[in-house]
Amino acid sequence: MIFRKATEKDISSIVAMIADDELGKQRENFQTPLPKEYVEAFKNINTDINQELIVIENDELEIIGTLQLTFIQYLTYQGGIRAQIEAVRVRKDQRGIGLGKKIFEWAIDRAKERKAHLLQLTTDKKRPKAIKFYEDLGFKPSHVGMKMCFD
Questions:
Q1: Do residues 100 and 21 touch, judged by C-beta distance below 8 A?
Q2: 29 falls in which pLDDT band (50, 70, 90)?
């Protein structure tokens, strides 16, 4: 497996994976060509030194997974950095073979390389299997998440 920074040519594969679940189907607009908003978002992510949009390729150089890491600098924890992991996806035909665990192991190592003192994530309460998976990896429910939607 190869973990590498995503390029603009990878956007369609990434959005396809993000849209390929029950919640993603409701909020994403995967079509060909992709709406320009995805390209604009990619450009913003790609130019931000605190964002890492990663794709995972197999030996045939097919994209089989993705994740996004955000590094958040703050004053608490003595000027600490926290890493936020988002949009972890595995291509449907590659699920159930341990790839998700390898993605998280890579992300944990990357967060440590960037001197983050913790790695955090949020997940929808409607995803009990994902919650169990995260707990099995060592994540602990520690806070109550709250949102204010503007849509």
A1: no
A2: confident
